[in-house]
Amino acid sequence: MARTHSLTGGRGESGTRAPGRAPITARTLRTDAWWAYPASTFMVLLAFVVYSTYAALANRDYYADPYLSPFYSPCLSTHCGAVPGSAGAPHLGWFGTWWIITPAVIILIFPLGFRLTCYYYRKAYYRAFWLSPPACAVPEPRRRYTGETWFPLILQNIHRYFFYAAVAFNLVLTWDAVIAFDFDGHIGIGVGSAVLVINAVLLWLYTLSCHACRHAVGGRINNFSRHPVRYWLWTWVSRINPIHGRLAWASLVWVALTDLYVRLDAAGVLHDPRFV
Amino acid sequence: MGYQLNLRIWRGDATAGGLVGYPVTVEEGEVVLDAVHRVQATQAGDLAVRWNCKAGKCGSCSAEINGRPRLMCMARLSALPRDAVTVTPLRTFPVIRDLVCDVSFNYRKAQQIPSFTPPTDLAAGEYRMRQADVERSQEFRKCIECWLCQDVCHVIRDHEDNKVAFAGPRLFIRHAELDMHPLDTLDRRTQLREAHGIGLCNITKCCTEVCPENIHITDNAIIPMKERVVDRRYDPLRRLFPNWRHKPQPDGGQP
Known about the structure:
Chain A has helices at residues 36-58, 104-116, 119-128, 159-179, 191-208, 211-219, 228-240, 244-266; strands at residues 2-7, 63-64, 67-68, 182-183, 186-187. By secondary structure, chain A is mainly alpha-helical. Chain B is built from 10 helices and 7 strands.
């Protein structure tokens, strides 16, 4: 046998080097590519943040009849339709002419809040951005840790309210998908119609597989046999809940691609092919 | 077909120690515990290692293999690098010697959780439950208490000071098992939040990743219990319109 190296733990250390624990100086002994998940998560989320910030602040090219970008739906400002690439955009007019900046910021707080407080995304960004921890059995860099017990992270506990808002938004985006088949009063099918339908389906699956949804429909009760309808709902949500993370990524990427498609169509860069 | 493996085992105690390399011949199909036993039998008779069933059911042989918390008896050598494998004790708990740790922290936390408390008007043998009502809790009964989830949890692994106010994933599923039981009469949410620190968990799912019993610790226990704590503590609507049937607290007080 051969002693490869001798290590002595330093007193006053914390974490895996705390007194009493095996004095091993290596921060981690993992030899696999543990950094791949946080690195790829960081890149994809950063790309989405950059693109969505641009798309929201651009304040143009978000409507190509009959397609409305999900980043601007529902359009609550009377300015909708008055900027280039938005002519004819349906709007509710709740925010009058006094609202002079992009109407996207009025609504994006809700889907943004839903994803920020989502139990899956919490894992993703805690690992990729906070490095808390970057990977399992890989130490985090900070000496102090309070988790979700203090402001602002204690606000993660209002996830269910963002879930309720997400359901309302999904209803609106489903309506957008329906009217994406309305071409000047005639029913038709374009590539954009399919894009908006897929967008709505993915968002519904992501929303309904949410842990807050699972809790609301039946998770909080203990006697399933006395609540057969809620048990049935809970069972269905439980079936799609294990793929909540994959649905989170799919719906995130697709909503950005949907906006990009509508944006390019509205800007005249591409022409929407029609099947019917 | 056998091959030569450089098995690096951490030897020492709380004061000093290091990785010691042992060249050992291993066979296809063997697990890490087989190799450790061969080293113990042929080269290091004083090597301290805890083990029992060699079948992944007793939870004794927990260690960190190439830096990842695993059961030595369930870690196939064919799935590890053929040149060198490193085995260390669990790095969250005090080491006693070599690969043996003092895991009494977990038992102290377990003692703090009130046991199953059925209704006082039901005698033993009178409990009647539907399968649908108990199947959620049955998943948590698979736990073999190997403490791998406790070991990998960064809340205590990286922060020794959190051990005072944090129970860990294994004890969270114990809370969930009891709180979701249709005949348990205690409201365990206050203890779970205040004394056992479920708010410190940030859902990074490492406990689920390392569980040898494939218990969905995060999705089926921790997150549902976090939502139940939200019901009680953080949701203004649930606080305005609470469930009229209050369960008593473990300490006998009212919610």
